[in-house]
Amino acid sequence: MTSNKPYKVTPVFSEVTLPAALRNAHSTKAGVWGVIRVLEGRLDYVIEETGKLHLLDPHTPGLVLPQEAHRVEPVGAMKMRVEFHHAFPSDFAAAT
């Protein structure tokens, strides 16, 4: 059974400290899944290829597929972090 634990977690970012690299289009490497966890407030998560916008909040995490270009933008005051996994995070569905 694959562990649900991420192999890496970013620091907590706020609307002020969110790096420009995350606000602009970027992607994970092959085989790397991400989970965007909003701890407070709201965050727009945009999939670049489709332009689809997901509004994330503490009850709605965002799933980042390997190599899928995306960007995020705070919607007012917020706190968030990103978890990185080597496989689909099997606890993701339970968290949504």
Automatic annotation (TrEMBL):
Domain TehB/YeaR-like positions: 8-82
Which parts of the chain span the membrane according to its record? none
Pfam families, alphabetized: TehB-like
Top-rank lineage group of the source organism: Bacteria
Q: Which InterPro entries does its entry note? A: RmlC-like_jellyroll, TehB/YeaR-like_dom
Provide the protein name. Answer: DUF1971 domain-containing protein
Tell me which species this is from: Qipengyuania pacifica
